[in-house]
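Hey, weird one. I pasted the SulP family inorganic anion transporter sequence into the form twice and got a warning about non-standard characters only the second time. First submission, copied straight from the form history:
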Amino acid sequence: MPLINGLHLRNVQGDIYGGLTAAVVALPLALAMGVSSGAGPIAGIYGAIFVGFFAALFGGTPAQVSGPTGPMTVVMAMIFTQYTAMFPDNPAHGAALAFTVVILGGLFQIGFGLLRVGKFIELVPHPVISGFMSGIGIIIIVLQIGPLLGFDSPAKPLQAMQAIPGFLNDLQPDAATLGLLTLVIVYALPALLPKVNKIIPAPLLALILGTLAILLIFPESKAPVLGEIPTGMPLPQMPAFDLHLFPGMIKSALTLAALGAIDSLLTSLVADNITRTYHKSDRELIGQGIGNTIAGLFGGLPGAGATMRTVVNIKAGGRTPISGALHSIILLAIILGAGSVASHIPNAVLAGILIKVGTDIIDWDYFKRIRHVPMSGIIKMLAVLLLTVFVDLMIAVATGMVMASLLFLKEMADLEMQNINTITDPDTTGTPLSDDEKVIMKSAKGDILLYHLAGPMSFGAAKEMSRRLAQFDHYRALVLDLSDVPRVDFTSCRALDDMIYDAQSTGREVFLVGGRPQVNRMLDKQGVLKRLKDGHRHHFRLNALQHAATSIGIESTLA
């Protein structure tokens, strides 16, 4: 396995242009997400630099560009607020704890990749992902309304919603003007002037115009701005640990790791669709983990594969890890040379940019198709969305997965139940019988019950298996046909065992047909086969029916 996935020098020109374009798009987003997280704009830039560089080199999606994303920023904002609030007299220690959580999250992601968890993350149902991402989009929008109007936003979505009327009654005019101008630019420019948007992306144009406005038009404005941004090379910071806080730090780190994994692999699928290639999911998790670990060491925000930056990179010609790494190097050069200018960027402009990010994260396509979506999918999506916004992100995903699993098991059980056929009358069966088998069944006149199972049998159908048998009282011999069953689980084995015991305890003869090697091994382990009399197991259904007829004194003339 090569150290750097997909690296070659056959597309250097495209990679250079792709990396440059991605950096231009990433700059305002990284600044905005840094401010939104509470860790400061430089944390967003450092996150874009380190996650972007190392995820590009060691990840599994060659054309992917990584950095702070909306979902990761929402979680990081909660983590940063939580730990700095614990140490009001020493917020630096709280910040160090928050970045230690980022490091731990990165290590967990590396572990996910080494344990090959990637393929399981890709099994998360679409309604769960849709509700989760839409919920995060709503959180971002709600939390940015305050900064858009010139205020600091509460940390919790519900508190931010409750504060909106107060913000509107007492808005800061200059900030609101700049915020609305930003919204017009980021929404209108791509739609009305797509060629201009390709030359200068809407977020960057809004950033430039907003900064010029605060310097030239509103020089005395009270609209909040970024303020001083550190310049110079970033320096690593020692992780901080607090023993009694460590369990909570682990939980937060797992939240970051799981969310980053989902976010990154979704973007990897987008990249695959555009480039007609296939990513390596486990390697991608390792690369993201390395990037997040190093970002945390340098005080950077956690990140993931970023859809907008990845698409821009690919459309501009980027195809290899060179483009993602170059995007990070360009961001480092910009922050080293233009930190003083960035200090004048209005917070309202960054809030407007993030509101656009929030609306892009919402799964509008799902809402458009909601009339054609099964009710179970709608319930899952809405439950996850509401839990994401008002309760907790991990609880939302866990609840969605449990709901999806239970509904899936119910659907599978229903399918298994359709494959259970109880036959006493050969003319009314859904199971095809040979002419000789029909002759025997007709001669039995209901004294032989043929119980035919097909498809895998699991605990979901176990109760129905017993219930179907209980509907018949007058048979004298039971033929259990397992010829078409590829597997059984423990619960369905116990159901078969109970069926055999109940029939034998009332003096009925029981015969078993077929049974593939895997099924027979399971039945043998559970002691089911020991219940059968010698000679009551047959490879073919006709032989079992003949034996059953003979055992209860029925004679039949076969053709």
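That's the output from the first submission. The warning seems to come from a hidden character in my clipboard, not from the data itself. Residues 12-360 form one domain.
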